[in-house]
Amino acid sequence: MASKAVAGDSKALGGVIINKQKTQHDGIASLRIFADINHVFKLLMDELGLELPDMSQSRRVKYPAASVESDGRIKLPLYDATGERAEGGLTNTTLNLAEGAMVKLTDGPYAGDQGEVVSCGPVYYTIRFQHKLKKNNVGTQPMERALGRFMVEALVNGELEKMPIVNV
Hints:
Blueprint: H1 2-6, E1 15-18, E2 29-33, H2 37-48, E3 74-75, E4 94-95, E5 102-105, E6 114-120, E7 124-132, E8 140-148, H3 149-156, E9 165-167
């Protein structure tokens, strides 16, 4: 862990940062590479003699028919309306990810920030959130985030402890 290396643990190797731009953590990295991560990992795979998988046919997630309502909302009976795991039984919770649907983040530094689903692709949903610029500032900035369909599949299967977003 990088934190162990920073603390002086001689057995820790530290972290690696691969990014095209400077980051706030560059000073504590054991290795800093200014490059595109895809290019770096392609070179690494070549060096290790590994073949790059064909990603032209990205994995398309299909939800079980029973988990999708007639209007396209996705049934998530193992979670409550706040996104938490349901205690003691099934719920009527659904998640609307149609274009124009409004959602909010349930966790992390931007918890509570609201966004609008702006596109529904075969691999991920694009959601435009209005994130606060700073904690004490009233201004917001639009930022687009991707929600992978694999994540929704994991919700349908009850594999996540908490829903990352809920409808507002």
